[in-house]
Structures are given as C-alpha cells and as structure tokens.
Amino acid sequence: MIPYPHWLNTGDNAWQLVAATLVGLMSLPGLAVLYGGLVQKKWAVNTMLMAFTGFCLVLLVWVLWGYNMGFGQPWTTGTGLIHNFIGHPRTVLSALGEQSRAQIPLVTPPQSSGSPALNFPAATLVYFQFVFAAITPLLFLGSVLGRMSFKAWLVFVPLWSTFVYSVNAFLVWGGGYWGAKGALDFSGGYVIHLAAGTSGFVAAWVIGPRLARDRAHGVPNNLPLVAVGAGILWLGWNGFNGGDPYFAGADAAAAVLNTNLATAAALMMWLFWDMFASRQRKPTLLGAVNGMIVGLVAITPAAGFVNGAGALLLGAIASSIVWVAWNYLPRVRPFSKVDDAMGVVYTHGIAGLAGGLLVGIFADPTVIEYIGQGKTASFSGSGLLYGSHSLHQLKIQAGAALTIIVWDAVITFVLLKLIGLVIPLRLTPEELETGDLAVHDEEAYPSPTGAERLLPRESYATGVGVPSALAASEGAMPSSLLAETRTEGGV
User: In 112-211, which residue ranges form alpha helices assigned H by DSSP?
Assistant: First the structure.
C-alpha cells in the first residue's frame, strides 16, 4: 500500500492547502473583525454575522455548481466571447470529484498546455478557489453595511456568486475568452477586487444610504480590533498571492515577497500624502490601513509577473492614485450620491483596476511563472518597460477590465431589483435606528448593568423607553472630532 498516487507532489499539495487556509483566515476572522471594528458599535454583530453567513453560502454554491462554472468544461463549444463565457454547472461531491487529479480543462494538460499539469487532488483546487470566491462578496459587504436586510443578503450572495463571480473566474482564470486572449490577473485584481468595487458601488446605490445620523457619526467602535483584522489580511495575503502559481516554486516565493514590498510602499505613500497634503496633515491608523489594502489589492494581479523594483513602484503609484480618488472623487457625481460605507469602490475597485493596468507596464519577462522545456517557451508577462513596444498587453488588460465592470454592474443591479420584488433590500427605519438589538437580539458591547435587557422587546424597535444615557452614548463623539470625521476606514 502507498499513501499517494504517483502524480501527487506532497510539497505542492501541502502548500496549496496552507495557502488556502491563509486566504480563509483573511475572511474569518480577518474581514469579520476588521469590519466589525470599523462600523458603529450598534452594527458590529450584524456585520460579523453577514461575513460568517456569506462564507458558508459561497461554499455551498461552490461545491454544488459554482466551481465547475468557473473552472470546468465550457457550457457551449466554439470560439468567441459567447462560447467561452461560463463553464457547465456540476457538483464536485463525488469521490472522483474530490480525489482525482486536479485539472482545469481549458488550461492544464491533457486537454490544454497553458500550464503544467497540477500535482494535487481536485479537492485541494476546489477548496483553494473557494476561499477566493468566498472573500469577494465579503469585500463588497463593506459598501452596504448599516442598512442592507439580512434576509436579502442571504439570497443575494448565492445568486451573485453564481451569475457574477463564476463568470469572472471562467473568463480570466478558467481558460475563457480573456484568459485565452492573454489577460494577466495573477491572483484576482480583476476577478475579485475590481468585481467587489463595482458590485459594492452598485449595491450601495440601489439600496440607498445609511441614516444621515449614522453617516455623520460614522466612526469606528474599536481601533485595536481594526488593527488585528488588518494584520490578518496582510499576512493572509501571502497565501492569496503565493498560492496562485499552483506550485511551491520560485514564482510563489517571488509573489510573496513582491506582495509585501508593494504593501509596505503603498502604506508609507498613503501616510506621506496624509501628512503633507491632507487637510489634517496628520498620520492616522485608518489611513495606514487604507494604504495597506491598496498595496495588497494593486499587487494582486501582478505579484508573479513583476520584479521587486516593479512591486515597489506599483504599490507607490497605486496608493497615490487611490489617495487622490479617495479625497477628491466624493465631490463629483456619481460618487457624491452613493454611500459606499467602507469606500470599497476606491480601495478595491480603483486599486484593482490600477494594478491590472500597471501589469501591462511593469511585467518583467524574466520573472518566470512556468519554465519551458524543449520547444516550449517559458511563461511570463511582458510590459512596456521590458521591450513590449506596442500597447497590446494594455489593450488586453483594459478589455478584460471593461468586460468585468459592465457585466458585474448590470447583473448586480438586475439581481438586486429582482430580489427587491420579493424581499425588502433595506432594513426598516426602526431597525436602522436600533441596529443589532432589533435585527439579531444581540449586541457586541452589552451594558455592564444590563439595564436595557429589562426593557420590553418592542422598545428596542421603537426607541421608546430607551434610557437617554444609552441613546446618547451610541455613536456620540465630541463635536470637535466630528468635524474631522469622514467615512469609516474604507477597506
């Protein structure tokens, strides 16, 4: 008896499982505690529960039909965008579906030679790609916090994962139209972050803004928790980008180092702009978190295609672009009319777009992802700075980005409108006023006296009978600080 089939490489398999777990930790607890610390305390429970349920719902969708829609056989045969748009939905729950050799039909042997044959079982690939699928709706959750109906969220996540994320994944990673054209998205700058920014912005517009009082008092309830969540995201990103070559090789190591270089450069650049160009002229933790996120997002499509110098430049440039957008775009339409609670359209949407386009400039052809043998050339990317004298790669990058923006915006709008015909998308005014106690009968920071627990349940929904001290403490802050407050963190 032997423990492994002949094709299984234990190092590759172990790394993919570890990398997937790191990415999973970015969602739970990373995003859950990050968002939970950024929102007002009355929305902390709602925020964390939406993160946990979203994670669960995507896993169920993924194994029942979503994985094969993103990484399986194409639903139709032929060429062109229509034929290379989506995979055929099937489950992956059988013994063969879990223990057979992993394969992406349009990318890996024996049906294709786009990459080397994978050296781990299908279950590893299914789980690795699941954690990417799961974090995407959790990212755009930040756009609609503090007003989206929990019931509508439970319906929206499976539908969005099916009709939006799976399409994005197939188009770029599953060998679909843009993947076949040569679009470079190493680990999800387009598939995940541009998608999250686009869908989050549309969802925030459709559902409407938070209460005016909540927007005015939109300060984080727990900055240490924000720091913990941000730190988990940063280190978890080593699995996010380090796992995407699918092999524990040199390119994985380069991707990990590049991820940290770009993030460090972006964080410091954001703080530089805050200290010398902002109205306050002061460094802030929330500004540092914004810069960190921008660096992580921007390097994601490029991590395994650029060298270290390119990673540093990419992080600094993307951070500068997003800082300007963050500080000036809210003054113009449509950004001025949409309440994106965490600024997801900036730190994920614009950052992901910037990173994806900058790949067409900084991709270094000597950074090899897969080593060629015989007459087969090595696989790498080539940007304008390294002998690519035309705008070909930039055009490909722009085309893929435009497709994702348009598709995701339209389908997100349609899905929300259809759901709204059956389930209210927005919480009631009473629930918006009260928060977690009205929606979940729980709160993150119960009063030490427990006095509010003695009130009739209906008083939580109406506000009648709530002690004035408790009401005043919710979101209260000195007027001098309120004048300096902008949006909540922006992740």
Answer: 122-140, 150-160, 166-172, 177-181, 195-207
CATH of the domain at 235: 1.10.3430.10
Q: What are phi and psi of 20, to 5 degrees?
A: -60, -40
Instruction: Name residues whose C-beta falls within 8 Å of residue 229's C-beta, 6 or more positions apart in sequence.
Output: 29, 30, 31, 32, 33, 34, 35, 36, 37
- Asked whether the beta carbons of 248 and 15 are under 8 A apart, the reply is yes
Task: Give the C-alpha separation, 384 to 370, whole Å.
Answer: 21
In this structure, the chain runs to a length of 491
Q: Which two tokens stand for residue 143?
A: 């756009």
Which helix (H) or strand (E) element contains residue 215? Answer: helix 212-216
Q: With the CA atoms of 349, 409, 168 and 135 taken in that order, what torsion angle do they form, in degrees rounded to the nearest 10?
A: 50
**C-alpha to C-alpha distance for 261 and 296, rounded to whole angstroms:** 9
CA angle 23, 68, 166 (to 5 degrees): 65
Give residue 377's Cα distance to chain centre.
Answer: 33
Give the tens place of pLDDT for each residue, 422-449: 999 999 999 999 999 999 999 999 876 5
Amino acid in the structure at residue 286: L
Report pTM.
0.90
Residue 222 has a pLDDT of 96
Question: In this structure, are residues 127 and 105 in contact, taking their beta carbons and an 8 Å threshold?
Answer: no
Q: Is 373 exposed, middle or buried (0-12, 13-18, 19+ CB in 10 A)?
A: exposed
Closest CA to 267 of 310, 237, 296, 224: 296
Q: By residue range, what is the domain housing residue 27? A: 21-420
Cα–Cα nearest to 410, from 152, 188, 177, 202: 202
Residue 93 covered by a domain: yes
The tokens describing 142, both together, are 């930040």
Cβ(44)–Cβ(221) below 8 Å? yes
Strand partners, 370: 379
Please answer whether residues 267 and 68 qualify as being in contact, where contact means their C-beta atoms are separated by less than 8 angstroms. Answer: no
Distances (CA, A) of 292 to 235, 253, 289, 319, 353: 11, 20, 5, 9, 16
Asked if residue 198 belongs to a domain, the reply is: yes
CB 84 within 8 A of CB 180: yes
DSSP one-letter string for 307-369: -HHHHHHHHHHHHHHHHHHHHHGGGSTTGGG---TT-HIIIIIIHHHHHHHHHHHH--TTS-S
Number of domains in the chain: 1
Answer whether residue 429 is part of any domain: no
In tens, the pLDDT along 345-365 reads 999 999 999 999 999 999 999
Residue 462 lies in a domain: no
